[in-house]
């Protein structure tokens, strides 16, 4: 799991090209190239802009690392919920 | 990064042996076998019990998935901070 944590850190660093925050363009690119399967509408600019707006709690027009982790956490919980539902359906068959 | 998210989900499922929560024993084992490098005192029962107490926001004596994700998020932010500090020191040399 430590490799997973490091992967999340390096994904942010690569996407932000070493800067501390992701601007709109780099956030779009990070989502479309890294979250295309887990996130619905990952290729839809408007939908991704909406997600960015929701994450940008300090309204600076950018996503910092802590705001990014909230997205990763929410996706991980959603992935877990999907997994539990899938297992439940399999058991009912 | 999607593999990283899946790894976090499967680590919880394996540690909880398919149950919805981690009890004290399975939380200890999850920490010692998965977070031994990133987390200080990962092998110290008392220290890990303290972390568990801090995470257990609904005080049911167990750690559910959402509480687990808060730990993973905090460790990821700490890992990123460490990385940024390390880079800054390298640049000053």
From TrEMBL, chains A, B:
Query: Could you tell me which InterPro entries the record lists for this protein?
Result: EF-hand-dom_pair, EF_Hand_1_Ca_BS, EF_hand_dom, S-100_dom, S100/CaBP7/8-like_CS
Transmembrane portions of the chain: none
Cited PANTHER family = PROTEIN S100, S100 CALCIUM-BINDING PROTEIN
Q: Coiled-coil segments, which residues?
A: none
One Gene Ontology CC term in the entry: cytoplasm
Lineage start: Eukaryota, Metazoa, Chordata, Craniata, Vertebrata
For this protein, the record's SUPFAM superfamilies field holds: EF-hand
Keywords recorded for this protein, A-Z = Calcium, Metal-binding
Which SMART domains does the entry link to? EFh
- Organism name: Tetraodon nigroviridis
Statement: the UniProt record of this protein carries the keyword Calcium: yes
Q: Where is the EF-hand domain?
A: 43-78
Q: Which Gene3D superfamilies match?
A: EF-hand
Name a GO molecular-function annotation: calcium ion binding
Name of the protein this chain belongs to: S100 calcium binding protein T
């Amino acid at each position: 799991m430590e490799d997973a944590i490091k992967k999340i850190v390096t994904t942010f660093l690569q996407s932000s090209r070493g800067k501390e925050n992701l601007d709109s363009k780099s956030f779009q690119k990070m989502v479309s190239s890294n979250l295309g399967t887990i996130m619905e509408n990952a290729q839809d600019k408007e939908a991704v802009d909406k997600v960015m707006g929701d994450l940008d709690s300090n309204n600076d027009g950018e996503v910092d690392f802590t705001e990014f982790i909230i997205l990763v956490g929410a996706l991980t919980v959603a992935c877990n919920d999907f997994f539990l539902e899938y297992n439940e359906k399999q058991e009912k068959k």
